[in-house]
Amino acid sequence: MGQTPIERDVPLIIIHTTMLNALLTNTFYSKTFFWHGIAFICILSVLLGVSALPKSSWVLYGTGTIILAGIIGLTWFQFIQFRLFPIVTAGGSFLFIFFTLVIGIEVAVSKERAFIKSAFSRYVPEKVVNHLIESPELLKLGGQERVITVLFSDLANFTNISENMAPPDLVNLLNEYLTEMTNIVLEEGGIIDKYQGDAIMAEFGAPVPSPDHADMAVRTGLRMQRRLKELRK
Q1: Are residue 228 and residue 168 in the same domain, yes or no?
Q2: Which of 43, 31, 36, 38 has its CA nearest to residue 81?
Q3: pLDDT tens for residues 20-34?
Q4: What is the pTM of this model?
Q5: Half-sphere exposure of residue 206, counting CA atoms within 13 Å on the CB side?
Q6: Is residue 127 part of a domain?
Q7: Which of 69, 90, 116, 188 would staple 220 via disulfide (CB 3.0–4.6 Å)?
Q8: Other CB atoms within 10 A of residue 37 CB
């Protein structure tokens, strides 16, 4: 009695029987052809690469799970067909490609999020940017009908003021004024739609809905007036 690769505690005479059967029927185990393995790894690479295109880890994870199950199933099928599939080579190649793509996606998404934060944080409150990153479906092409509040601010007699100032002084004045007003808009939860000279157009209640968007705009206008009085000094 002894152990074989298939069973425990079997009469070892079965080894002789198996060898004799293999000799009589020519059913020895053989290796899978080398080019079959290469072709399998190439197909595997293409499938994983395509699944990584949407930059969604879940798509890649799902595809990876299916491929891993396929490798195990193919190994068993080849085994019962008396062919030894290179599971270590195929499995190792799969793991290498899979984790390389996962790391690549995470790096790309992190860079993309950092860029979005950097680009939008000057015009949109940070909490709104974070919300959009987590829920990108809120940004849809084609527009959306919604009640929001828009704030327009404009400096009285700015044209006359600008005509009597040197360009460098005018730029410094505008930079100081617009920076102060923009900070107030962002602190109150609004977003900057555009600047036009000294004018500011800000929106409240978009892209993230807010039930008190009108109150937010009014508070912003009052704060801007109070801050402007301080800046006049």
Answers
A1: yes
A2: 31
A3: 988 898 888 888 778
A4: 0.52
A5: 15
A6: no
A7: 188
A8: 16
